[in-house]
């Protein structure tokens, strides 16, 4: 029976590696009467055009959706959504919430009509239901309060739709306990209402900041000790935007294993991190952990790793050390600090110069004589003309020198 069930699930795209764990957690599926119903259920789910990845995720997260009677109701209910052009991911979310909270398709359809009546476009509606499907559990008044809040601070209807589209989770925030205190925090730092309004519409995710988080980010920026060009680059789009960029980088570092205190410490010690895109930072961390086999905690001690160029600084040095380690050319183990902190010339003299075969791996200072950027003999064009000296000129120079003695 277990083999038949496994074959059935595998036929509908369930990964073999997850079958044993899934079946052991859901013994009710082994009921011999359920196999035909299970086949029908999986067939109905596929008819909703849900992707295979989403289907497996749905079954893992909420096995109850395999109830054939439940799905037959939804098979009829989905027809009512025909005019709304909902994405398969939205349908997947509806099925999970409907099963968990016992909401019938008619209740979901009513909520959809309410959201549509509030003026949401089809694209925004899909975005909201994909990213924040729990909106269907909210009543109309809760959603309207968010709209009234944004209207109250002078944001246009187009701006409100942009906010909901780019950051659907804001619909779930409480106005009194979250949104108003956050705006007060922005004002406390001296930002005017026009700027706050402009920045919210420009980047709605600023509303995702926890209370006090924005203040901590700005305090970090104020305490930075770095070269002026770096500070100008960080603050190039204004302090408000820079504060949010700090938050994004802190979140990125925390996502990869650092705690928030450590993440702020890394940014303070190495401000250049804030001049790199999030994608570049993640690329470096992936390389550090998976290729170089260092723990992410090393960044607290060597934050310079995130502040240097990946292709010109990190990769060439790693290649040289890897080559020497393979040949047994290292007297002692080279840690991350020894790899990153030495200057280009010092690293070259220590690890590359004694081994000519490493010069191509390192690139810098290799290839013999450095080529001039200017044509040979160009200096002659800028050589000042010489004039013959007369006897009178010689007498004048001698007389001048005698006055200095």
TrEMBL record:
InterPro entries: MTERF, MTERF_sf. SMART domains: Mterf (SM00733). Keywords: Transcription, Transcription regulation, Transcription termination, Transit peptide. One of its GO terms (molecular function) is nucleic acid binding. Pfam families: mTERF. GO terms for cellular component: chloroplast. Gene3D superfamilies: Transcription termination factor 3, mitochondrial. Belongs to the mTERF family. This is Uncharacterized protein.
């Amino acid at each position: 029976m277990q083999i038949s069930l496994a074959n059935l699930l595998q036929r509908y795209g369930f990964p073999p590696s997850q079958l044993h764990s899934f079946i052991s957690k859901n013994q009710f599926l082994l009921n011999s009467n359920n196999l035909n119903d299970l086949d029908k259920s999986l067939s109905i789910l596929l008819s909703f055009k849900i992707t295979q990845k989403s289907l497996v995720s749905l079954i893992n997260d909420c096995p109850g959706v395999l109830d054939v009677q439940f799905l037959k109701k939804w098979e009829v209910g989905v027809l009512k959504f025909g005019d709304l052009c909902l994405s398969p991911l939205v349908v997947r979310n509806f099925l999970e919430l409907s099963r968990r909270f016992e909401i019938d398709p008619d209740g979901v359809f009513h909520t959809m009509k309410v959201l549509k009546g509030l003026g949401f476009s089809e694209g925004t509606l899909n975005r909201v239901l994909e990213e924040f499907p729990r909106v269907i559990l909210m009543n109309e008044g809760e959603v309207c309060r968010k709209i009234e809040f944004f209207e109250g601070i002078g944001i246009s209807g187009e701006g409100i739709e942009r906010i909901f589209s780019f950051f659907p989770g804001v619909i779930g925030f409480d106005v009194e306990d979250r949104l108003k205190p956050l705006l007060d925090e922005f004002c406390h730092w001296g930002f005017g209402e026009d700027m706050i309004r402009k920045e919210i519409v420009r980047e709605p995710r600023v509303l995702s900041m926890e209370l006090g988080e924005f203040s901590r980010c700005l305090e970090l920026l104020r305490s930075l000790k770095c070269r002026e060009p770096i500070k100008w680059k960080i603050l190039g789009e204004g302090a408000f935007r820079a504060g949010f960029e700090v938050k994004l980088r802190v979140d990125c570092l925390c996502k990869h294993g650092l705690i928030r205190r450590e993440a702020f410490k890394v940014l303070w010690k190495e401000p250049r991190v804030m001049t790199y895109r999030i994608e570049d930072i993640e690329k470096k961390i992936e390389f550090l952990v998976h290729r170089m086999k260092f723990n992410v905690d090393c960044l607290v001690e060597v934050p310079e790793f995130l502040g240097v160029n990946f292709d010109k600084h990190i990769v060439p040095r790693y290649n040289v050390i890897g080559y020497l380690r393979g040949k047994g050319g290292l007297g002692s183990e080279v840690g991350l600090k020894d790899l990153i902190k030495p200057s280009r010339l010092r690293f070259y003299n220590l690890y590359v110069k004694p081994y000519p075969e490493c010069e191509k791996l390192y690139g810098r200072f290799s290839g013999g004589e450095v080529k001039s950027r200017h044509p040979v003999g160009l200096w002659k064009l800028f050589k000042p003309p010489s004039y013959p000296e007369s006897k009178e000129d010689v007498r004048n120079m001698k007389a001048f020198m005698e006055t200095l003695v």
